[in-house]
Specification:
alpha+beta; 5 strands; globular
């Protein structure tokens, strides 16, 4: 199933960035301003005068307090939103993972099912999940159908954390 088919099947809709829930706004703005550097990081953002992780923590706090700057500048930007039942998303993610996760040893693992893969993933990424335990930030659905980076552009840690937490749906945003 392609990502376009996923969007259609699960009722993806587009909304203005300003109308997204706060955690959706944050995930999108962080991806666009920090990870992708496509959006401005405003002059009032904290400088990197500390270690990397402290800097990211400070940026996270700053971005939440200053989301109005992003809403003012990018509020009309259209963003796709959908929720996929976790039981379906695990199947989709597992299928994609078989195709592209060889860089982290997926194919050597010979995982019999998603649970075996999930257990292995959590062990490999131990300690990297703290930012995703209290909030349900959406993952970002991959916008490149032929790309080998899988179903998610961003949000693999979130996905595995939400699965572990027992969320019934995987929150997603996408580029329409």
């Amino acid at each position: 199933m392609t990502n376009k088919q996923i969007i259609k099947k699960y009722g993806g809709k587009t909304v203005a960035f300003k109308d997204l829930p706060l955690h959706h706004q944050f995930a999108y703005a962080w991806y666009m301003a920090i990870d992708g550097e496509a959006w401005e990081l405003f002059d009032s953002a904290p400088d990197n005068k500390t270690n990397y992780y402290t800097h990211l923590k400070n940026l996270r706090k700053w971005m939440f307090r200053n989301m109005d700057l992003y809403i003012s500048r990018y509020g009309k930007t259209r963003v796709g939103v959908l929720d996929v039942p976790m039981s379906d998303f695990t199947k989709l993610a597992y299928e994609y993972s078989e195709k592209w996760h060889d860089d982290i040893g997926f194919n050597e693992g010979g995982f019999k099912d998603f649970d075996a893969y999930h257990k292995w993933y959590m062990k490999q990424r131990k300690g990297e999940f703290k930012a995703h335990t209290d909030n349900d930030y959406p993952g970002i659905l991959n916008g490149f159908e032929k790309d080998e980076s899988g179903i998610l552009e961003d949000g693999w840690h979130r996905f595995h954390t939400y699965y572990k937490k027992g969320l019934k749906k995987m929150p997603l945003i996408y580029f329409p």
